Amino acid sequence: MFCFLNCRSLPISLLVLISIFGLSRSHHFEPKYRFHICSSPSNNTANSNLGSDLNGLLSSLSEASSDSFYNRTFNGLYGLVLCRGDMNSDYCHSCVSAASKELGDKCRLRVNATIWYDECMLRYSDKNFLGIVELSPRFLMGDSGNQTLPDDRNIDGPALLSQMASEAAGLEMMFKANKLDKRGTRYGLVQCTRDLKSSECGTCLTALLEDIRQVYKARVGWRILGPSCSITYEQYLFYHLPASSQGLSGKMIAIITISTVAAVAILASLLYCLLLSKKRRGEQVLLRNLGDAKSAELMKQDLHSQDRDNDEEMHYFSFITLQAATNNFADANRLGEGGFGPVFKGKLMNGEEIAVKRLSVKSSQGHDEFKNEVMVIMKLQHKNLVRLLGCCLEGVEKLLVYEYMANTSLDAFLFDPVKCKQLDWLKRNNIINGVAKGILYLHEDSRLKIIHRDLKASNVLLDDEMNAKISDFGTARIFGGKQVEASTNRVVGTFGYMAPEYAMEGVFSIKSDVYSFGILMLEVISGRKNSGFFKVDNKQSLLSQAWQLWKEGKEEEMVDPNLVGECSLSEALRWIQIALLCVQEDPSIRPTMSMVVLMLGSKSIHLPQPSKPPFFPIGFPMSADQSSMTLLGTGYLSTQSSTTTSI
């Protein structure tokens, strides 16, 4: 059905001749008929003059067709004409004349009818439809072929159209045409009848896009034509006249073209020489002005080169796709705000919900950290790790696209006085076991040995069934096969969850994550936040309180009152003991995550007595985690700017 001529390789002079030839033949223009629909024949004997009234209306519409949009009334009949926004008056008149004749022949004695051509639409009715959004009847048409790229997922084209629809609704012409240069050029066009308000135009186009999402989401080209708006998407250029030529007659275009052809031919030769002379200078200017955009492209190339041996192909989203998915990053879609930038809920044109982490231009997360998060998580496949769907690198924009987690994060439930009641013992047990298995996978079962370094409640996401998934790998580190520990002078993470050897000396290992997991376990069993490393307002930290109650044999006081009666006391106390084993001061005697998983899954395994956990000196920084995540607490967020320090 669809084909196109690739003109990019043709000489300039030949292109000029083709253009002139096409314009000179404008009098041979024939509009492309698509579809028409008529109502049932009228049985109203009172309207005996319907035929003559219809002829009068159609004649009036045809005579007034110098404008691209107009409406008329004639003896109780309402009529409307809309020409495509790139049509000049001659083309518009030809199309409307053909439409009037067609409806006059095929819809005589019908009280309403609509006809669509590629270049125009005409409709009439005995009911006043002006200023009313109508979606029926509508005509849908798609080609017979599917996407040529199976991993394309047809998200970029509809996203382009969604953005165009938003723009068209605010334009006087309510018309927008554009192209998408990504994995092959595609062309899109959206248009509304101009009797609608801006908001009504947007509503109409959005409804048609939803139809396309359900019907033709896998097609490389399609069109949907309605009485109030229309959308066309093709892999060839179908809007062949620029909008700037509107209002010019065919004769005027021919005169202008003929009078300038000689100058164009001369200028073409001069331009060729000029381009050659400026080529090197232009390349130098381009390199100077690329800046962050060049850096982003280099990063993308870097990611591509490192992904060659990866089983999963990294999907690169276009920025306009993510703009459309998030409604231009609307505040209503904002999930939260982190130190690296905001996170937004989005919906792709195939219906898939996503979470988009948009790094602020001023973010402290730079090239290496962004690349680190992408390269680490794209190599991981586990049900208890959040899935990275892809990324976007365009100009200064750096965005990560994750699967959307309907219940945000663990801290949004655990520390909320109302939502916490939804976390019964079964759900908490499932969450802790899921996190433990996710960390075990990172440490021992994945192709890489990965230290997360920022495990906390806000980085544990919950899906619609409250299953836990670990997120935020921006600070994760990859260890070699035999590597046991590493050190850094740049400590990143969250106070309150950091192991003492890491917080004080910059030394980290798999046992650092074990310590953080122990703190998380205490929070889950108690329903309380770990307030930090020392007393504030005569209140103990969660860790010091847990140790004191353990030593006094009163550890049952640590259990969340909401869990009383739901779980056996012995099982809850076993949890507290496992948590205290994880937070012991000496990392060498903390259990590995494989041992933790065994202890959680089997009551027959004997648990050793824990040793005293670390207590930090007065003056060591308090946890900023509670103040840095005041929105929805989603673990797509990273709070490095407010929770890290350098030692």
List keywords for this structure.
17% strand; single chain; Killer Toxin P4, Chain A; Phosphorylase Kinase, domain 1; six-stranded mixed β-sheet; 647 residues; elongated; 4 domains; alpha+beta
Oligomer: single chain
* Helical proportion, percent range: 25-40%
The fold-level CATH name of the largest domain is Transferase(Phosphotransferase), domain 1
User: What Rg is obtained from the alpha carbons, in whole angstroms?
Assistant: 33 Å
Largest sheet: 6 strands, mixed
Taking strands numbered 1, 2, ... along the chain, how are they ordered across the largest sheet? 11-15-16-14-13-12
CATH superfamily caption of the largest domain = Transferase(Phosphotransferase) domain 1
Q: How does this structure look, described?
A:
The chain is built from 18 helices and 22 strands. By secondary structure, it is α+β, with helices and mostly antiparallel strands. It folds into 4 domains: 21-125, Gnk2 domain, C-X8-C-X2-C motif (Killer Toxin P4, Chain A, 2-Layer Sandwich); 139-244, Killer Toxin P4, Chain A (2-Layer Sandwich), CATH 3.30.430.20; 291-404, Phosphorylase Kinase, domain 1; 407-643, Transferase(Phosphotransferase), domain 1. Mean pLDDT is 78; it is low at 1-26, 148-153, 243-248, 280-295, 302-311, 532-538, 617-635 and 637-647.
Quick recap of the structure?
37% of the residues lie in helices and 17% in strands.
Q: How does the SSE layout of this entry go?
A:
Layout: H1 12-24, E1 33-38, H2 50-63, E2 69-74, E3 77-83, H3 89-106, E4 112-117, E5 120-125, E6 139-142, H4 156-169, E7 175-181, E8 185-192, H5 198-215, E9 222-225, E10 229-234, H6 250-290, H7 292-306, E11 315-316, H8 319-325, E12 334-338, E13 341-347, E14 353-358, H9 367-377, E15 388-394, E16 397-403, H10 410-414, H11 425-445, E17 449-451, E18 460-462, E19 468-470, E20 477-479, E21 485-487, H12 500-505, E22 507-509, H13 510-526, H14 542-551, H15 569-582, H16 593-601, H17 625-628, H18 640-643
Parallel strand pairs: 11-15
Antiparallel strand pairs: 1-4, 2-3, 3-5, 4-5, 6-9, 7-8, 8-10, 9-10, 12-13, 13-14, 14-16, 15-16, 17-20, 18-19, 21-22
